[in-house]
């Protein structure tokens, strides 16, 4: 870079910086200010589930803000009935921890579907007709990875399942 080019670059930087300073100053002046005492009583706390990690699926019940189900890629399915204050595992007896999808039937909130396989291979779709107390494997064991489930809003026995299949050998490996 020549001396002239360096000089032009330095002048350009000074001009840009001098134009940006008033804009930043105005942005700070217009940003809302909050009184820190409004938040002084708040403390961070873990409300669960206590398995950690990320969540791969969430489903709730329309009209009931206290009940939610979450599926974890390595931790099964959990249920809350108190808006997330406490969580209970409801899928441990199935011996498959990797969950990619959870869906609640809009026409019958006792019917829940779980698609297994997200972080590791699963073994199909499970259905509960008693809000997660018991589960039955209803098929698609060879698909390995299930990413979504949609339940027909009128008929809880009709579902559409999004499957990824085996990543190397294909869908029905």
Structure overview:
The chain is of the alpha+beta class and 173 residues long. It folds into 2 domains: 37 residues; 107 residues. It has a 4-stranded antiparallel sheet with strand order 1-2-3-4, with no helix packed on it. Strands 5-6-7-8 form a 4-stranded antiparallel sheet, with no helix packed on it.
Radius of gyration: 26 Å
Largest sheet: 4 strands, antiparallel
- Number of continuous helical runs: 1
- Low-pLDDT residue intervals, each spanning 5 or more residues: none
Sheet with most strands: strand arrangement: 1-2-3-4
Measured distance between first and last alpha carbons: 60 Å
What is the N-to-C order of secondary-structure elements (H for helix, E for strand)? HEEEEEEEEEE
The domain tally reads 2
Structural class: alpha+beta
Strand content: 25-35%
* Average pLDDT level: 83
Label the overall shape: extended
> Can you count the beta strands?
10
Write the layout of secondary structure elements.
Elements lengths: L2 H28 L26 E5 L2 E9 L3 E5 L7 E2 L9 E6 L7 E5 L8 E4 L7 E4 L6 E6 L7 E5 L10
Antiparallel strand pairs: 1-2, 2-3, 3-4, 5-6, 6-7, 7-8, 9-10
Search tags:
single chain; 173 residues; alpha+beta; 2 domains; four-stranded antiparallel β-sheet; 1 helix; 29% strand
């Amino acid at each position: 870079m020549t001396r002239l080019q360096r000089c032009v670059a330095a002048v350009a930087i000074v001009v840009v910086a001098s134009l940006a300073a008033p804009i930043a100053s105005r942005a700070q002046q217009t940003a809302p200010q909050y009184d820190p005492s409004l938040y002084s009583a708040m403390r961070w706390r873990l409300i669960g589930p206590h398995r950690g990690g990320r969540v791969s699926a969430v489903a709730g019940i329309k009209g009931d803000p206290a009940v939610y189900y979450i599926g974890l890629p390595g931790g099964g399915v959990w249920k809350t009935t108190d808006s997330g204050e406490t969580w209970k595992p409801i899928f441990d007896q199935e011996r498959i921890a990797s969950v990619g999808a959870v869906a609640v039937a809009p026409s019958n909130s006792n019917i829940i579907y779980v698609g297994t396989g997200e972080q590791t291979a699963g073994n199909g779709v499970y259905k509960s007709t008693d809000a997660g107390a018991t589960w039955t494997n209803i098929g698609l064991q060879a698909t390995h990875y299930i990413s979504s489930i949609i339940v027909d809003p009128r008929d809880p026995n009709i579902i559409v399942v999004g499957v990824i299949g085996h990543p190397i050998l294909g869908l029905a490996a």
